[in-house]
């Protein structure tokens, strides 16, 4: 199974345990004036829900290739498709948002498609949310999954150093990326379960995934005293570009 399509094997866990981006970061990359918005790689609709919760919510088209994920999206027009072939007319949308997903796309093809469907002056907002890797216990517990999946690959500061492919007429609105630190209260089982929602772990067989869950839970108990819940630090990084008028 390709790594990009592993999330649907645990779509319910993904939806329950992975948070969407912080609303402040979403507000910085998605103008309130946008009336038609594409949630690209919508997954189970975490971002779609956040957009629809806005006052005067726009029309949302949720584009997602995995039907097991897409089935959980509500309140939006659902389109089963990939970023590289958008089932949308030229210059038909005001904004595109993609959260924790850009690394799965063919950059050139996806950027060309986004440039095609955006109206002149439309915006592309990219977001990356994750447990904050600069907090040692968070990095250690998340590292249990990383090590089981890929060896001891260190986390990158994804998004901060990101550059959109050139030549498609986008102007960078965020030379200083948006960076929002926040926290979420989770039970210890939820934290260990979240570690098991990343693609590298989802590729493992069921017994190995169970072992990751138990090891993450144990490491959390070693590093963080007390009972449930635990305050888990997260970060959301955001970038925004405007399509040339
Ligand atoms: C980590 S999930 C992010 C889901 C959602 N945006 C969120 O923030 O929770 C990555 C999603 O990208 C989707 N995906 C993978 N390859 C894709 C592609 N080429 N085009 C569009 N979506 C893709 C996967 O199916 C998965 O739902």
TrEMBL record:
<dbReference type="GO" id="GO:0008168">
    <property type="term" value="F:methyltransferase activity"/>
</dbReference>
<keyword id="KW-0489">Methyltransferase</keyword>
<dbReference type="Pfam" id="PF08241">
    <property type="entry name" value="Methyltransf_11"/>
</dbReference>
<comment type="similarity">
    <text>Belongs to the methyltransferase superfamily.</text>
</comment>
<dbReference type="InterPro" id="IPR013216">
    <property type="entry name" value="Methyltransf_11"/>
</dbReference>
<dbReference type="InterPro" id="IPR051052">
    <property type="entry name" value="Diverse_substrate_MTase"/>
</dbReference>
<dbReference type="InterPro" id="IPR029063">
    <property type="entry name" value="SAM-dependent_MTases_sf"/>
</dbReference>
<protein>
    <submittedName>
        <fullName>Class I SAM-dependent methyltransferase</fullName>
    </submittedName>
</protein>
<feature type="domain" description="Methyltransferase type 11">
    <location>
        <begin position="38"/>
        <end position="124"/>
    </location>
</feature>
<keyword id="KW-0808">Transferase</keyword>
<dbReference type="GO" id="GO:0032259">
    <property type="term" value="P:methylation"/>
</dbReference>
């Amino acid at each position: 199974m390709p790594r990009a399509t592993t999330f649907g094997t645990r779509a319910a866990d993904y939806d329950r345990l992975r948070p969407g981006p912080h609303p402040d970061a979403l507000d910085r990359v998605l103008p309130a004036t946008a009336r038609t918005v594409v949630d690209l790689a919508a997954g189970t609709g975490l971002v779609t829900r956040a957009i629809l919760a806005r006052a005067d919510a726009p029309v949302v088209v949720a584009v997602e290739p995995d039907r097991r994920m897409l089935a959980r999206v509500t309140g939006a027009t659902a389109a089963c498709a990939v970023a590289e072939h958008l089932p949308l007319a030229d210059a038909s949308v005001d904004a595109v948002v993609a959260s924790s997903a850009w690394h799965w796309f063919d950059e050139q093809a996806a950027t060309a498609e986004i440039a095609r469907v955006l109206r002149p002056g439309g915006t592309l907002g990219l977001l990356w949310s994750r447990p904050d890797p600069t907090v040692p216990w968070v990095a250690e517990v998340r590292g249990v999954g990383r090590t089981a999946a890929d060896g001891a690959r260190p986390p990158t500061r994804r998004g901060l150093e990101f550059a959109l492919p050139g030549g498609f007429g986008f102007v960078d609105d965020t030379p200083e990326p948006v960076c929002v630190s926040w926290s979420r209260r989770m039970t210890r089982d939820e934290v260990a379960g979240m570690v098991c929602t990343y693609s590298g772990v989802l590729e493992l067989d069921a017994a190995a995934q169970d072992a990751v869950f138990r090891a993450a839970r144990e490491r959390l108990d070693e590093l963080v005293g007390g009972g449930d819940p635990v305050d888990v630090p997260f970060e959301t990084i955001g970038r925004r570009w405007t399509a040339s008028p």
